[in-house]
Amino acid sequence: EIVLTQSPGTLSLSPGEGGTLSCRASQRITSTYLAWYQHKPGQAPRLLIYSASSRATGIPDRFSGSGSGTDFTLTISRLEPEDVAVYFCQQYGSSPLTFGGGTKVEIK
Amino acid sequence: QVQLQESGPGLVKTSETLSLTCTVSGGSISSNDFYWSWIREVPGKGLEWIGNIHSAGTTYYNPPLKSRATLSLDRSGDQFSLSLSSVSVADTAVYYCARVQYGYGNNWIDPWGQGTLVTVSS
Description:
- The complex is a heterodimer of chains A (108) and B (122).
- Chain A has 108 residues and is mostly beta strands.
- Chain A has strands at 4-7, 10-13, 19-25, 34-39, 46-50, 54-55, 63-68, 71-76, 85-91, 98-99, 103-107.
- Chain A is built from no helices and 11 strands.
- In chain A, strands 2, 4, 5, 6, 9, 10 and 11 form a 7-stranded mixed β-sheet that branches.
- In chain B, strand 7 (69-74) and strand 8 form a beta hairpin.
């Protein structure tokens, strides 16, 4: 199975600051079959990005995704207080579906 | 807007069967456009996909859980269920139900339920 490793474990940003989250795969992911999710405590995880770079419906344009092969990134261009959450990636290029361990984004 | 809600016992005894139900509102599980999925988050281990079921009844399971997991549909109630047999403390987790896009290359997950904590204890 494809193992997804996310870094950093925690990202501390000031409001308005931008940051980059990384998701690295143990083997090449077919096409760009990778998604990103936002998960706040007590809430359902929320789809942000699919196909590596397509924003889901209603997702602000300060969230963007890129990458291919084994290296993918999620960029938050200007952190808002409501963006505090855990962000995780998921690959769906091969079975079984697998997930990264998550990056916690906090306010500095 | 489709919403999913998990329900079931929060405490299960070791060696027994864990049973959870997911109720879908705002949509039909009979749609051919989606799989219906169970995913769990084990403390300290992260997220683990358990399996998918399509409206046609076709099932797909994560190999480590395949021998113990069973997914089923109740079309009349727009519900789908998970049974996990012979549970141990290692099955203690938050269990999520979710909808997965159908078709190869489309298997992102949207939406998810809020999750339900199931504790396995003797």
